[in-house]
Amino acid sequence: MNNQVQAQENINPQVQSDIEKLNDINKKQEKRIHALEVKALQLTNLYFVSQGVILSTSSSARSITCHHWWIPFVLSLLAAILNLVAFFFTMRNILSYREQLDQNLEDLCSMRTYRVTRAEVNLVKPGELLHQQDGDQGGPRRQRPDPFKKWKRRVLSYASIGLSLGFSGVVLYGCHAILCHQRSNHEC
Known about the structure:
It is a single chain. The chain is about 80% helix and about 0% strand. By secondary structure, it is mostly helical. It starts with a helix and ends with a helix.
């Protein structure tokens, strides 16, 4: 605790103010990300429930014949399109906000370590020198977030979108198969 007090005493007041502001921004960003993750989960749950209702109604309805298979198909397709578009944009926002938060955390670390203001950090691109002087190639650099975390996050997001597309295809096929194949086998 004593070291933290000494470290804060040695920091320029402008740097300390910028660190506190960036901490507040990061907290707000984490809340945004959490809200978007909840929204993505709700969209997924809503989608599964709506597809389940369409499939169960199709399989139990005696008045819908194979000739009218397109009615539940179109309902399922509309639900799939609307949900997948909303899910895609939600995931895109989550990825964008996570990447911004990762960069903010790296900048926060640089600000604390090298005692620089946010404006000084933002003057350079990630990976470049923070205090570049003529011909100087050494010294502290603005850190980039971990590229593996970014890659892994994107792969998992796109995989979840791909799985949702695959599930949509199965459900769409099921709308036709339940009404035409299952009933025609029982009528024989």
